[in-house]
Request: fold
Amino acid sequence: MIETHAHIYDEQFDEDRDAMLKRAFAAGVKQIWMPNCDHETIDGMLALEQQYPNVCHAMMGVHPCYVKEKFEEELAVVEQWLERRKFIMIGEIGLDFYWDLTFVAQQEEVFLRQLALAKKYNLPICIHSRNSKNNEHNAILRCIELIKQFGWEDLRGIFHCFSGNLEEAQKIVEINFLLGIGGVATFKNGGMDTILPHIDLKHLVLETDSPYLAPVPYRGKRNEVVYLELVARRIAEIKARDFEEVVQQTTQNALSLVGLKS
Ligand SMILES: [Zn+2]
Reply:
């Protein structure tokens, strides 16, 4: 299995990080992709990449929740790192309308400027898209609009932690992006049981978003990478496919997105 989204550098893992990773590897996780948040998360992320070469891969980008007054400084850090070395993806980037709408204009600007970086370095992107609480402001649809407006046909990536509706899922597939499926698939009210039967396995990748969004039966607790297997098993159940087939296909989808071989 390939874990396409986990914040394993998070301080919630400071006490038992290596044991947590050992559990994940023992369960068959072959790679872990780490999304960046802002300048403060880079050192911990890169240290893990060094400790687990060819297994832990770092992304580079500014998370929309970290787009505030100092967004120019954050973007400059990202640009410098991309100039210096290779990353697996640009991420995580996007729009978050959930907590507040103060910096929406800046979030959109930072998203578009990171799409330009994706083009410049020919890298896929990892998208964070979260609606406002009343769903009045739809982050998925706005991201799709901005991607279309940007207009680079080769742009590709993942809508991480997909939790939208079927129409949104189909729109993501139409622009050739993948859906990152995580713990939400195991939630009773998550809606994935009615959506995933209509979406082909070739459009899905696995993720946990650890330490957030733990799957059932660990919902509300700290999430960790070993639970990726629960996500894969739930997808298999919803789609009435073999677990092995889900693992094989999502692995292939992830690897071909970033140009790695299995
Ligand atoms: Zn994340």
